[in-house]
Amino acid sequence: MKFNKATLTLLLLLALCAAHAAAQQLPEPKLTPQPSTEAQTTAIREGIALHERGDFEGAIRKYESVLAENPANIVAIYELGFAHMAKKDFKKSLEIGYRGAGYDSPQLAGFYLLIGNNLDLLGEPDKAVEVYKKAVKQFPRDGLLHYNLAVTYRNKGKLNEARKSLKAGLAAAPEHASSHLMLAAIFYNAGYKTPALLAASRFLVLEPASQRSTAAVRLVRAVLTGGASAGSKPGEINLTLDLDAKKDEGDFSAVDTVLGLSSALTLMEKEKEKTEAQKLVGQMETVLAVLAEQSEKKKQSAFVPSYYVPYFVELKQKGHVEAFVYHALRSSGLPGVREWSESNSGRVMQFLLWSKKYQWPAEVKP
Length: 366
Prior knowledge:
Mean pLDDT: 88
Number of helices: 18
Shape: elongated
Strand content: under 5%
Number of strands: 2
Largest sheet: 2 strands, antiparallel
Order of helices and strands: HHHHHHHHHHHHEEHHHHHH
Helix content: 55-70%
Strand order of the largest sheet: 1-2
């Protein structure tokens, strides 16, 4: 293929423009948005409905018609950027994100998310991190900003930074299930058994019956049952204990030991008549009893002891362990789970009401 001088100049200019769009600095939010008219609000709602049906082009036309009348309609600007990202036009979406970030509006954190996501999708994770870090300084209580920063860190292999971002996000948004799930996976892969168990359990309180729930259940069962295995001889049980477990997320050595012992007990002859769910209830009762005892003896300031442990200790004290386990196992397909849940729906509802009202700490150590 041959290029003449004019073609090469045009290609160079296009490349420079693309690089400039990706490298653009966040604008100062000084502009004032203009409110929607009733007709514009209706058009935006119609655009959102089209977006939800997958008709991104139709949605874009609706938003552009609003912006033709009111270029400072901040909701239309945001939805337009979101629609372009959905149709995978990340450069256009990025351009619109920067446009919207110039307005002092309630959607400002959303525009920072839009910019960060597009930078990440365009292969600019370092620039995405810069945007997210600036955004979380401005909006420290926005859990989604912390979560998206954690996603970018995780994808870059910076797992310690991802952990810190997830913790900060969960202090701000304890109901954000995805943050609990990602933190559980990071904990588990790094060898933090008890922290992984608690984070995955909290995820299953919030999201017990989705496709993602099956992975969380596998993690919980792996932690609860992974400390022991049947030996080569009848009645022989092999017990695995990690004597060098990490303690920077809290000292859970006593709990880790009990995890192995409780796993071994489930392999004994007298336990064989119990269902898997019943065994898991017994193990969780034991683990939480030890957690409660340890938390009374030794106060720890790390994130897991100050964030997750009080919740699960109170859960046990309120008598909700059985309801919690069966609720958490909804996606497992284990025998007896559906039947127990249907027969004890009132107990499950009481547990969920208590959980909803639980007061999570607003400030925790990262």
